[in-house]
Every structure is written in structure tokens, then in C-alpha cells.
Amino acid sequence: NDYTKVYPISGGLSSTLNYSDILKKKDILVMEGLNDIMKILEGFKDGMYKNYKFLDLLNCKGGCINGPGMIGERSVKERRKRVIQYRDYARRYEKDLGKAGVKVDAEGIDFRRKF
């Protein structure tokens, strides 16, 4: 599973959602950068984007890998590549150990709540 491994890159949150039974790819809008996000939100007020059901919005261009807390000289492209390499490594690691990510770690825990 890729849960949470690619969330810091643009589109990472929506790519790790297990949404196939409730959403289609066309229902998801991915946007990055404060100015573009503000335009999208204004468009929602005007009804321009009413067909979207899920917003994957990242304030920083390129995602969190380009945020103010990032240190070092790597480009956004290089950081993205490294996140994806990590995901691919983790896939192999989990497969070798017979793990299934969140499904194994949270097995038997009931997350339902009633209010």
C-alpha cells in the first residue's frame, strides 16, 4: 500500500486515497500554489467547479516538498523523485516482509464513531 508515502507531493493525497468505491478520478481536483488555490475557491463560490467532490489542495507549488520547512539545495523535481523512490522501496520492503501497510498495522481496530 502507498498510504501516506507520497502525500507531500502534488496529487499525493488523492493518489493514496482508497476511493474507488465512492469517487472517480474525474471527481478529484488537484491544485497547488496559493494564487491558484484562491482562484479555485473563488470559482467554487461562483459554481464553476461544482462537479468536483474532492479537493487535493497544496499551498506550496510542487507540494510540501517545496514548503518553507524544507532545507537543502535539491530541486522540487529531485525531491519528488526521491519521494517516489521511497514509495517504491517501501513497496518492496512490505512485500518481502509479507506486510500490507495500514491493513496490517490497524488490523482489528474499529475506527467507527457514533455521535
Automatic annotation (TrEMBL):
**Signal sequence, start to end:** none
One Pfam family from the UniProt entry? Fe_hyd_lg_C
The Iron hydrogenase large subunit C-terminal domain extends over 25-68
Q: Which Gene3D superfamilies match?
A: 3.40.50.1780, Fe-only Hydrogenase (Larger Subunit), Chain L, domain 3 (3.40.950.10)
| Protein name in the entry | Hydrogenase
Query: From which organism does this entry originate?
Result: candidate division WS6 bacterium GW2011_GWE1_34_7
User: Which taxonomic lineage does the organism of this UniProt entry have?
Assistant: Bacteria, Candidatus Dojkabacteria
